[in-house]
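Hi team,

Below is the intake form for Transcriptional regulator from Pseudoalteromonas tunicata D2. Please confirm the fields before the structure is written into the shared record.

FORM ID: S-0412
PROTEIN: Transcriptional regulator
ORGANISM: Pseudoalteromonas tunicata D2
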Amino acid sequence: MDRIEQLKIFIQVVDSGNFTKAALVLNKPRSTVSTVIQELENKLGTSLFHRTTRSMSPTDDGLQYFELARSLVDQFDAAETLFLNNPVKVKGRIRVDIPSRIARRIVIPALPDFLIQYPDLEIEFGASDKYTDLVSDGVDCVLRVGPLTDSELICKKLGDLSLCNCASPNYLVLNGTPIELADLQKHKVVNYCSSVAASSAGWEYCVDGEIRKIIMGSNIAVYNAEAYIAAALAGLGIIQVPRFDVVDLIESGALIEVMSDYRPLPLQLSLLYPSRKNLTPRVKIFQDWLCQLVSQKCLNSDEL
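The structure came back. Fields below:
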């Protein structure tokens, strides 16, 4: 077995967390995986994993070796595909993280056609609304909505998501329909808590060139976008949400847009990835496809 193959096995063991899971992913005997790790440790003269009867985790040396090994494997894969124009030849694993609603509504439904073009790609897909540390989590790229704090990452701004205010018909029947910003003081909102912004930050509007911040009462706070929209549908308050995400609900009458003359400040939609000199072809191909897809589906929904 060549050294690159050994490195790929080592990387998979780190990602999987134990020999058994890694062996299943690699379709190799567990004994082979265990032997490869032992051989690497003997060659390097250090332990790569902390081992107990129930779990294993990388040592400090193991983590350092993991970063180097991953970089070497990525460069090796890039060299193999450098002169290949056939998209079928692009292969390997991609780790991505995308906000849950964009993942469920936009990206996952489009993945089958993408994988028909690139059947040898393996995508590890995180669909959450939580902050992801690309470097420590070994993620190739993420989509982020809102303000950014990762100064060491490469950021590609895709555009701005237009927002709208909406509520359920039942909520408006019981509480009335707000017309002016001052009316919001009498209403309840569904608070959205994220890893980037606190729920108490308030809503911001641009009025005559000035930013107006409105803080309202609430009976509920949620931690993901699915629950946020579900709470509005249940009549628990007004929400402020990317327009693309509720166009169908507004068209069906399940939600009603309010205060359309007062548009909230838009949210930036960005693609982030680690600052690496050699971006592998598979990651570049996926990023280009993802950017085009979300730009078409998410950024062109100002009109119902």
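SUMMARY LINE: Residues 193 and 223 are 5 Å apart (CA to CA).

Thanks, M.
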